[in-house]
Each structure stands twice: as structure tokens, then as C-alpha cells.
Design a protein that fits this description.
homodimer, Aminopeptidase, alpha+beta
Chain lengths: 414, 414
């Protein structure tokens, strides 16, 4: 096989692209705040479109808001696609998502310059609203539209914090919700996503990149425990129905359980709201989220059943009312073995050491897995940081990632 | 001794006064929303002033916003004072505070009608901003001004949620912050406060009223535990510095400790803020309050020391940064034994059964204790409810309370 020497791509050029894109919607120093369909997001998508046109690719936006840049293949057929997203958390960093889009652009451009047209069509994609940071119920919006999971009703009913619905916001940005079904693709042969790791495992292992074996099952459950709100001073401990005490027990129980299971099980309580949240009032209710993940389907199922039992037992014993609502439920997906082999082959050829790991985060690839084989490349994150302006990946690691991505795309498309 | 037959005061009249006052700033059905210096609060103070004038009392407002209504004594000297406050929680009920003001008015009016002028001056007070519901740092504003604990600087620096300082708000309501020191009183012989219990102890004991033996030590501590914010999926459990896990352990530990101590110890975590409060993000920090109370000074001191140790130990073991800030610290105060005897005497004479209890809530009486002997009468609260529109006390219990108050004031002033 041929290998692509990433040095040709010019390290400084990649760094410059990261900084230029990061300047659009720049926030909190080294961060970005680019929510879907905002002016900053539109400008960033336009920037990628412009760079893609400059590279000689055919650029189009689909009805969902995704950007596609294509190089036709001499033999036609289904496309080999790589990319990620450029919308961010509020604020997020310069790397989450954006690095996958830039890496695909750099890799495809380098392949085009070095080898001309591929046999199979080769495409870059920049998906819309992966994070759900503007529309909490529209996470993976763009990739879900591509796999046919979004309809016009969704456009009319999903709203952001200000109450605007995503359909109206799409229209204002020049996209037609009425045509959203046209975003569906059935002509994709493989999807390879490069992404920052967002965790510390590569740093601990002292490796620049990883090949992702699969993406974890993610379930987010919203839980409300309700008791009796009473005066913090005048109401004796022994007759309280205190949801804060129940909440604390749930947090300790589910976190200790994940710790006992060990890697790769994780459970997080990130969000909690006490009502009425007064220092001198026993809360009436505490509402919180349990985010629990496991990449092994059977283990995930067992984990969620165990959580249900724990919640029911604690609420009953403390005489608290329990309400639960599953808000996100993304089943685990395995990477395609032949794509994993293609990445491994490319890495070995380029002399880049890798390891296998499951992704503990959700990705557009998880949606794409429902219509085509997928695989992912992770690039080391400094300190494992993510969803913060402090995200950082060293250019040497990025170059390793782009090299392996380019070689993989070559193996698949040329 | 003479006893006052409260039936003379007209049960229906008292009920009507509660409803009329409750209509000013009415909120959430049976609740009120009357924050200090608001239009509703000014109107409610005016209503009490009007009723006091109608009763033939000399009415004045002091510079802090307190309303005083006085009947001079034939022998002069220091005054016997009764009252409470009419500002409310957001929203609160019709009874917390307001009942103490109305009871003082009804009792003094009845004494005047039955016996004419007292030997000692007899006064009603309606204190300003007891709750601190508008200005969180100005709780007990009026009573603190009376005992000389407020100065002009406080007026300029204490702000409400909208950023307005209390001095400006006072001026707009017609009070002069520059004269706040004139609110100080050194001519008060005794302060008797009637208040709803705000807890379920009288209801459990099936008694209409209680004589308060003392007011609990109240300490509210703001605590922040800080760890590392990281991705909920990509960051393994075993290397997290998760402040939510530490927070949960603290909540369980302090609440279990108070339960083990038993009545009258109480500890409440009512307020908590997770930052950044995202479902898929390990929090960077959790900030919360610990409200811990004990009426026995030595037990209170031990309780607070134990909490400090628990916090330091948990934070250190979990490698979390700990910040604590005592926000409220009101030492316990005992009721004056001779005033307690006077109330007991009045209750026995009226045939009203009582019990002794410590107040788990803070009251203006706690401030007044620094300048004069104090005591309190508690009236049974239905379901122990308080700080909610659902507060309710039966008119029979209220009449028992006013009867005993009137008899006590008679014992002290006539």
C-alpha cells in the first residue's frame, strides 16, 4: 500500500486552520461558543465550505444543515465519508468535532493532490448540531437526518431555551425544514470519524491515537424525588420526608456501583436542581440526572436495571415520590471489523503506535452506524479535558491522526 | 390577677383582620408576597397603622421602617413591647409574622378597652424585613436597627437580587437611611413575641400554644467543593475528582449525624448548585448550604465543630478543594425566666394548656434579647407547615394565643 506522508500537509497549515476556525465564535480565551444555526456557526460552516472549494471539492449543504464536500470516484458507487461537527458546547473548545472536520478536509485534499481522483467517491461532512447545546432534544441532528430519523414534525416541536423552534431557526439560516427528508443518504459505503479522545486514557498510555472498538451505550435518566418542604429549624429530623437526603443516597449508591464495576463502566450525576433551593427550607423536591454508560450491551442492560432497583428501593424506604424519565438512550455500537483493520493497517504503515479503546462519549458515528459500517480514530487530549475552552491536542498527535486517517481513506477509496 | 376573656375580642373580627391583611400582596391563593419596602409591604404597614390609630394608639414609623403603636403608661418608664413582622417569604403564608403583629394589636386594644391606661407604656411593633427574603443579607433588619446593629454603611452596601441597595429602596419608601441610628431603643423593659410554631410539635402534642424556652443557635454555612470537570463518558471513575460524589457524602453524613443526635438537633441542606450543571459533564464544583441548629449552646458548638471535621476529612480523602463561609450565625438565646413565668401564669388563669419548647426558627426576639428580657408564645401550625401559602392556624388556637398574650401584657404593664 501507499502511505501518505503527513509532513507534506504542512503542520503549520493545520495549526493555522485550527486557529482560524477557532476565531469564529471565539469565547473564554481558547474556547468557542458556536451553537447550531447561530451566526458564528453559519460563518464557521462557510469557512469550511470555502476551504473545500479552494481544494477543488464539490460543496453543498443539505436541508438539515450538514455541509458536504465531495470528490467523485472514477468507478462511482457508494461514498467513503469522513468528518464530524463544528457546533460546540457553551462554551466548548477548539477541538471537539472541529478537529474531525479539519482532518477530513486535510486528508482528502492531500489524497487529491497526491493521487488525483479516487475509485470510489470520497466525501467530507460537517454535521449540524451534534452537541444538542442549543436544542437539548436535537443532539445528533444532522447525522440523524442523514440516517432518516428526523421529520418535519421534529422541526416544528423542538425548541431552544428562548422558545424558538428549530424549524424557524433553520429557515432563518437558509435551510428548508420541509425538505428535511432529502438529507437522508443511502449511498454511503463507510464512515470514518476522527475525534479527540475527551478522556485521559491515551495520555496515560503515552500514545498519540487510538482505534475505537465501539461506542458506549449512553442512557441519561432524569429523576425527581419529592418529599415535604418544611422549615429547616422547626421541623424535627425524625419526621422529615427530605428529598435531599434521598438524592444524596442515590448519588453515592450509583457512583459507588460504577466504581465497583470498574472500567469501562461510568456513572455521572452532573445536574441537580433543588426546589425551592432555599438555605432554610427542607426541599420539596430534588431533580437530577443520572448518566450511565457501558459499551458492552449486556453489561449496560444490567447496569440500567440495577439503577432502577436502587432508585425504587431508596425512594420507598425514605417515603419519597419517585419519577423517572429516560431522556437519552443511545445503544452501544461496535466499529466495523474491516474498517478497524483498515485503520490498523494504515497506522502500522505510517509507524504510528495505537491502542484499542471504547468511546465513552456519543458521536455522529453512532447514528451513521445504522446505515453503514463505521469506525473512529481518537487523538490524545491533554489532561483528558473536553467540553471546555481548555481542550488541547498537540499538533504532533493531530498529524499522527490525520496521517492514519488519510492512509485509511486511501485504503478504502483508491 | 385579672384575666382577659378573649371572646370579647370577637373571633370573627380577628379572622377578618387576618383575611384583610392577607389580601394585601395576596399570592398563590392563600399566600402573600410582601417583601420589605415593596408597595404591598408599605400598604400592609399602613393598614396596621390605620387599625392602631382607630384603636387610639400613638403611631409612628422609625427610620429603619419599623412601625410602632404606643399607649403611654401612667407611671412612665421603660415599655412593654409585643409584635413581630409582616414581611413574607416569596411567597409565604398569611400567618408567619403577621399573626404576632395582629395579636399584639388585638391584645393591646382589648386591654385598653377593658382597663384603660397601663402603669407602664405598652407598645406594638411591626418589624421590617425579618425574613431577609428581599435582601438576603438584611434578615432581622428592623429588630437589628432597634438593638443598634445597623449603620449607614449597611444601607449603602446591602443589595437585593436586582442590585438595588436597601438605602435607596428605604428612601423611595419614605425612610431616611441617614437617621437609621435613631431607630435604636434603650427604653424597652420586655419583648413578648407571639408567632406560629412553624413545626409539628404542638400538633403532635394536641396543644394550642407553647411557651418558648429559648431560641436555637442557627448557623448557615456556604460550602463549595471543587474538583475537575470532565466528560461524563470519556473519563474513568477511578481517576475522577468528582465534587458531586463528595457533596453527596457530606449531605448523608451531616443529616445522619443530626438524626443520631435526635431532637432538638436539626441539619438541613436546602440549597445546592452544580457548576456547570450539565447532564453529561462531571461538575467542576458543587456549592451548597448546611443549616445546622441546636438550642443548647454547648451542643451547638460541638455540632459545628463536628461538621467542620467531617467536611475537612471528606474533602481531603476525595482530593477536593474545600471552601466554607459562615453566612448566618445567630447564637442561641434563652427566654427570660420571669417572662416565661408571666406567660405560664396567664395561661393557667385562662385555662389554656401549654407546653415548653425551644424555637428551631430564628425570630426578632433573638435580636431583642440583646437589649431586654424576651419570651415567646407559639401557636399551633396545621401540619407544621410554614414559609408556604399553605400555612394555617385554627382560629381557636389563635384566640388561645391572644388570650394568653393579653393576660401576660396585663401582668407586666398594669
Amino acid at each position: 500500500m501507499n502511505t501518505i506522508n503527513i509532513q507534506k500537509f504542512d503542520m503549520q497549515k493545520i495549526e493555522q486552520m485550527i486557529l482560524t476556525l477557532g476565531a469564529i465564535g471565539a469565547h473564554s480565551g481558547t474556547g468557542v461558543w458556536r451553537t447550531a444555526f447561530s451566526a458564528e456557526w453559519v460563518a464557521a460552516q462557510e469557512c469550511i465550505a470555502e476551504w473545500s472549494r479552494d481544494a477543488g471539492l464539490d460543496v453543498r449543504f443539505d436541508a438539515a444543515g450538514n455541509l458536504w464536500a465531495r470528490m467523485d470516484g472514477t468507478e462511482g458507487g457508494k461514498a467513503i465519508v469522513s468528518g464530524s461537527h463544528i457546533d460546540s458546547q457553551c462554551p466548548g473548545g477548539r477541538y471537539d468535532g472541529a478537529l474531525g472536520v479539519l482532518s477530513a478536509l486535510v486528508a482528502i485534499t492531500a489524497l487529491k493532490d497526491a493521487y488525483g481522483s479516487p475509485r470510489k467517491p470520497l466525501e467530507l461532512v460537517s454535521f449540524c448540531e451534534e452537541e444538542g447545546s442549543r436544542f437539548p432534544n436535537a443532539g445528533f441532528w444532522g447525522s440523524r437526518a442523514v440516517v432518516g430519523k428526523i421529520n418535519l414534525q421534529d422541526c416544528n416541536k423542538i425548541t431552544d431555551a428562548s422558545g424558538e423552534n428549530i424549524g424557524a431557526v433553520m429557515k432563518a439560516a437558509g435551510f428548508d425544514p420541509g425538505c428535511i427528508s432529502e438529507a437522508e443518504r443511502k449511498d454511503i459505503a463507510a464512515f470514518i470519524e476522527l475525534h479527540i479522545e475527551q478522556g485521559p486514557i491515551l495520555e496515560d498510555a503515552e500514545l498519540p491515537i487510538a482505534v475505537v472498538s465501539g461506542i458506549t451505550h449512553i442512557r441519561q435518566t432524569k429523576v425527581t424525588l419529592t418529599g415535604d418542604s418544611n422549615h429547616a429549624g422547626a421541623f424535627p429530623m425524625d419526621i422529615r420526608r427530605d428529598p435531599m437526603a434521598g438524592f444524596a443516597e442515590v448519588v453515592t449508591t450509583v457512583i459507588n456501583h460504577a466504581q465497583k464495576l470498574g472500567r469501562p463502566a461510568v456513572t455521572t450525576v452532573g445536574k441537580c436542581i433543588s426546589d425551592p433551593n432555599g438555605a432554610a427550607i427542607i426541599p420539596r423536591s430534588v431533580t437530577f440526572t443520572i448518566d450511565a454508560r457501558h459499551p458492552d450491551p449486556a453489561s449496560a442492560t444490567l447496569l440500567y436495571k440495577t439503577h432502577e432497583k436502587m432508585l425504587v428501593e431508596i425512594a420507598a424506604r425514605r417515603n419519597l415520590t419517585l419519577e423517572t424519565q429516560v431522556q437519552i438512550d443511545l445503544p452501544a455500537c461496535l466499529s466495523d471489523p474491516s474498517l478497524v483493520d483498515a485503520i490498523d493497517l494504515s497506522a502500522r504503515a505510517a509507524g504510528v503506535k495505537t491502542m484499542k479503546m471504547a468511546s465513552g462519549a456519543g458521536h455522529d458515528a453512532q447514528q451513521m452506524a445504522t446505515i453503514c459500517p463505521i469506525a473512529m480514530i481518537f487523538v490524545r487530549s491533554e489532561g483528558g479535558r473536553s467540553h471546555t475552552p481548555e481542550e488541547f491536542s498537540a499538533i504532533e498527535d493531530i498529524v499522527a491522526g490525520v496521517t492514519v486517517l488519510a492512509g485509511t481513506l486511501y485504503n478504502l477509496a483508491y
